[in-house]
Amino acid sequence: MHQLRALGISTEAEGIYLDLIARGALDEADLAQRHGADLAEPLRELAAIGLIERSDDKILPQPPHLALEAVAQRRTTEAQLARESASLLADLWTAGIGQQTYVELLPSAESARAMLNHVQVDAQQQVRAMTVGNLASPNHQIVDGLFDALSRGVSYEVIYGTRVLQDLEALRKVQQCVDAGEQARVFPQVPLNLTVVDDRWALVSARATVGGIVNTAAMVVHHSPFLTGLIGVFDALWRVSVPITGGTENTEAIGAPALETKRLLTYLSAGLTDESIAREFGVSERTVARRISRLQEILGAQTRFQLGVQASRQNWL
Fold it and tell me: Which pTM does this prediction carry?
C-alpha cells in the first residue's frame, strides 16, 4: 500500500501509521523497537497532516477521512492561490520584461503584408531581402512604395528564389526593379522570406501547405543577436547567388557577351525551362540547349547553376 506516498509522506511514516491502525495506540518505545530508533521525522510528518496525536507516552492514530479532507481543502486553496499569482505575475511580466522582448508574432498574412509595405516608408538607407515566392498566386506584385524608396536613395539588395522567376511575367517585373536601381540575385533554394531594414529590424515569414490549407507564420525581429544571425544568413546567400541584370543594358565591351547571351544567362539563373527560354527567343529548344552547352564549355561549368556563378565571376552578369 502506498496511498500516503502521493501526499509526500515517506515510506517509513506510512508504515508506522498502518501499524498503528492495525494495533491501536502504541508508546514510542514499542514503535522504536518495531520501526527503528529514529522516529522523530516520520512522526512529525504524520502529525503535520493530523494522522496521529500524542497522549502521555502513547501515539494514537486518528481517523484518516477528516484529516485527509482537511489536507485536500488546504491544497485546493493553495492551488487557487498559485493560479491567481501566476495570472498577476504574467501581467507584470508583460508590462515589464515582456515589453523588452525582441520578437513580435504577427497574427495573419494580411498583417505581414501590411508590415512589408511599411518597410519602404521606414527604410532610411538599406533594405536587404530574400523571397521564396508564391507561384500559387497569379498576381505578381511589386511591393508598395519600392520605386519611391529607390528614388530617395534607399539601397535594395534582393535574393529571389528560382520559384519567383520561373514565371516570365514575374521575371519582367523583377527586371523593372533592377532597371530602377535594385540589386537582384537568384538562388535555387531560398529557405524563407526575409526583409531586413537598416539593420534595425527584420520581417520574417514562412508558408506551409497542410491538407490543402495554406498556413503562414510571420514575426518582426528587433535589434538582438537573433537579428544579427538573420543578417549573417542573408550575407552568406548573397555571396553565392547569381546576379540578375536589367533588360535595358546593351554594352558590347571587348570580352563581354552580347545582350542576347546575357538574357540567356539571366533566364538560366532564374531557373526557366528550355521551353520557356525558347519561347522568349523565338527559337527551338534544341537551339537553346546547344547555346547552353557552348557557354558551359567556354566557362568550364558542369551544371547550369555553376554556369551562372561563373558568368557572374567573369562580370558577364
Answer: 0.54
